[in-house]
Every structure is written in C-alpha cells, then in structure tokens.
Design brief:
The protein is of the alpha/beta class and 425 residues long. The chain folds into three domains: 99 residues, Alpha-helical ferredoxin (Fumarate Reductase Iron-sulfur Protein, Chain B, domain 2); 137 residues, Rossmann fold; 103 residues, 3-Layer(aba) Sandwich (Rossmann fold), CATH 3.40.50. Helix content is 47%, strand content 7%. Helix 21 links the parallel strand 7 and strand 8. The relative contact order is 0.11. The structure holds iron/sulfur cluster (2 copies). The site of one iron/sulfur cluster (SF4) has 13 residues, from helix 4 and helix 5.
Length: 425
C-alpha cells in the first residue's frame, strides 16, 4: 500500500485539514459511527458533508463555499474523526465549513450561546433572580420563539459565588511533601455555573502536594467556534495562550477539569482555529486533562492512595466518557483512578454521545435531535437507577444527563475528592 503522505508535496500539506478529504476511500465507517445521521434526515452524514462536500467547497469561487446547509447539523462531536481509518479530519473541516456558512452573519442566538463567560460574569451576581427566571415557563417559551433557544434546553444555573471568589478565601494549602505548582484552568462553567468540580479539583491537587495557582484566563473560545464566530474565538484563544505561556515556560503543568476546554488548548487552536501565536503549540504541550494528570502522577508513584470506600455507594455507578474526552486520545484515565477506590464499581456506558454537544442541544431546531442522540445513554442510566450519581467529565453533558434522566451527575474528580474524605459526593 502506498504511503498517503507521498500524495502530497509536504508533510504539512498532508496534515492541512481540508486536504485530508483526498484521503477518503468512501468506506462509510464514519457514517456508521456518527450519532446524528441516524436520528434525522436533515443530516446526510459525515462522509457526505465532510470530504465529499469539501471537494465542492474547495472549487467554489471563494474556495470555501458550502454546497448545502446540512453541515450546520453536524454537532461537532468528533466521533467521525476518531474512527476514520484514513486520517480524514472530518469534524474539523465541518467546523471550518460552518464558519463560511455563516459568513460573519451570526444569529443573535448563536452570539448569546457563544458568550457563556460574559453571561456568567454579569449573571452570577443576580443568580437567584436569573435562576428563578429561567424556570418560568412562559418566559422560556418567549425566549424560544424570539431567540431560538429551546424551552426545555438544560440551561445551567448561575452560582452566586464564583469559583475564583471562593478560591480567594479558601485556597487549600498543599500537603507535604510539596511537589510544586499547578496552574488550574477552571474555564467558564467551572467558574460560574458548576463550581463543585473546580473545588474538588483544587482540593485533590493540594492533597497531593500541589500549590494550585489560578492564571489569568478567559473562555477557551469553543462556544464561539461552535457557533461560527471564529474571529472572536481566535481572540479569546490568543489571550489564553499569552496568559498561560509564562507558566509553561516555568514547566508548570496547566490542568483543567473540563475536557472540551483542555482539548481546545491542546489542539483546537491549531487544528480548527488556525490560531497564529508563537506559543500556541508550546502551551498546548503543557496542558493536561485533570484525570490524565492524576493518572500520570500515579504511574510515577506520586499519587496519594489514601482512598476510603464511598459512604452510601454500594451499587455500580455509570461513567460516560464525553466525545471531547475521547478526542484527547488518552484512554479513560478516570476509570483507572476509580480502580484505586475500595469497593467502588464503575461501568462505562455503552453510548457514543449524550447529544448536547456543547450548545448544539440548546437550539430549538436541534433540541430533539440531541435528545434522540442521547437516548441509548439515558436508557442505561435509567436502567441502572436514577437514585445513583452518574459520572461524566463534561459539564454540558452532565446537565443533559440530569435533564433527561433526573439522575444527579458528577465529575470524576468529585468521586476522588469524596474518596479522599475532602468533600461529600
Ligand atoms: S471513515 Fe474516513 S475514509 Fe471512510 S468514508 Fe469516512 S472519511 Fe472517508
Ligand atoms: S462531528 Fe459528530 S455529528 Fe458531526 S459528522 Fe462527525 S460524528 Fe457526525
């Protein structure tokens, strides 16, 4: 078999996202794996909207025109890119095609959904009012009709005290022996909407001897990127890289609990946004998913293993690995960490995607698609019992799982923190 790299003039050319469409052999493996194509006729599948449509886009007058609008129904889950045996970067080319589809005319709804940080920053001081407001049915119906955010979408609740405010008062001191600093990337959700995972993360890191510092940071940019606002996403990405680079230069690991945000820092800035920043890849190489970081510590014999059995948990728990976690290509380190907890039994869900895909499942026209995509997972959660917590790394996936099943959902780090006795589960 000939080396596909020889098909192209340079190695960089081979890796350019759009040119990987020429590697497609039409095997349809991606179409079989795509969770969206089977549940809606509006989306013909990754092979069709990805490499096949790309040939038309590349011959368009602008060089990137989309032959049809169906690419907007790609959720960006990335499963197609993961399964393609020929290295076609399908999700990445779909995401870039979505940018040209909008051509700068971004709907208000998309602009709002892309501004999770801004909404958190201004909203958290009015948390009781806003949380009450989002529970008023007539208000949600009006929002759906006027803006296009589905009335049942699992919008998060604001937390009155942000994680950074909490950290300023409760920063945990590292246990001896002190191993050095860790820079924690809390991201928008971890700061304003779902702070339990961030608190658990810094408690566990401090318990393992790390002096946790919070670098200056803004939204990773993924919500804007997913909603077609590439310029805004690049500006956010560039600021993050500039703020994080000094830590990377000192050899300080940059760790995050949100798998989608850490994936943006690791690879989306290069693969999707084409962010031009001299420290982009250097910073990316210093970024770790939190479970990945803790498992590496364990492999070096440096992770504390004074775990105790979790009180009140005697049945098997379900763990759902989000699409963005799988795209890290690090296996499922959380499962290996759970093996260290006495008497804990965890089963990985046999399901591709929960359907929320960031803000995809919030949209009025996509809400039901998201719910249908997630049905296999929801059925397994219900069959296992909704009285038990479900474990999942991504905040939007946790909101979707709880919305669909009523089961409480927690980040893996909350399980570890509880087993260390640092906080209740
Ligand atoms: S899996 Fe890859 S090679 Fe096969 S049809 Fe999809 S893009 Fe083409
Ligand atoms: S990113 Fe997900 S939804 Fe989009 S084409 Fe690939 S598998 Fe399908």
């Amino acid at each position: 078999m000939s080396d596909p790299i020889q098909l192209f003039e340079t190695y960089e050319h081979y890796h350019e996202v759009e040119f990987t469409s020429d590697l497609c052999v039409k095997c349809n493996i991606c179409t079989s794996a795509c969770p969206v194509a089977p549940v809606t006729e509006l989306f013909p599948g990754p092979k069709t909207v990805g490499p096949q449509a790309q040939r038309f886009r590349m011959t368009g007058e602008r060089g990137d025109e989309s032959p049809d609008k169906s690419v907007d129904y790609c959720s960006g889950c990335g499963i197609c890119t993961m399964v393609c045996p020929h290295g076609v970067k399908i999700m990445e080319m779909n995401t870039r095609a979505r940018e040209s589809l909008y051509d700068g005319k971004i709907p208000l709804r998309n602009r709002l959904l892309g501004r999770s940080e801004l909404m958190g920053k201004w909203g958290h001081k009015f948390a009781p009012l806003l949380n009450f407001g989002k529970s008023i049915r007539p208000a949600r119906i009006i929002v759906e009709k006027v803006i296009g955010i589905h009335r049942d979408a699992p919008l998060p609740s604001w937390e009155f005290t942000s994680f950074r405010e909490w950290f300023a008062r409760h920063k945990p001191q590292p246990s001896a022996p002190v191993r050095g600093k860790v820079a924690y990337f809390h991201a928008c959700a971890g700061n304003y909407y779902d702070t339990a995972a961030s608190k658990a993360a810094v408690l566990v890191l401090a318990h393992n001897g790390y002096d946790v510092v919070l670098p200056e940071q803004n939204c990773c940019g993924l919500p804007m990127q997913s909603n077609g606002e590439f310029d805004a996403a690049r500006a956010h990405g560039a600021r993050n890289v500039s703020w994080l680079a000094p830590y990377a230069r000192q050899g300080i690991p940059i760790v995050g609990a949100s798998t989608s945000c850490t994936l943006s820092l690791k690879s989306d800035y290069r693969e999707i946004l084409r962010l031009e920043h001299p420290d982009r890849d250097f910073v990316g190489r210093h970024v770790y998913d939190l479970s990945e970081f803790l498992l590496l510590l364990h492999e070096k014999g440096e992770l504390r293993t004074d775990f105790k059995a979790l009180p009140g948990i005697s049945d098997t728990l379900i763990y759902h690995a989000p699409c963005q976690q799988k795209a890290h290509n690090i296996g499922q380190p959380a499962l290996d960490l759970f093996d260290l907890i006495p008497d804990l039994r965890v089963r990985m869900a046999d399901a591709a995607c929960c359907g929320i895909a960031g803000t995809y499942g919030f949209k009025a026209e996509k809400y039901q698609i998201g719910m249908d995509v997630g049905k296999p997972l929801f059925d397994q959660v219900r069959a296992n019992g909704v009285d038990k917590p479900v474990i999942c790394d991504s905040e939007t996936c946790r909101w979707q799982i709880t919305h669909a099943t009523s089961a409480r959902s927690v980040h893996p780090i909350q399980v570890l923190a509880a087993a260390y006795g640092l906080m209740p589960l």
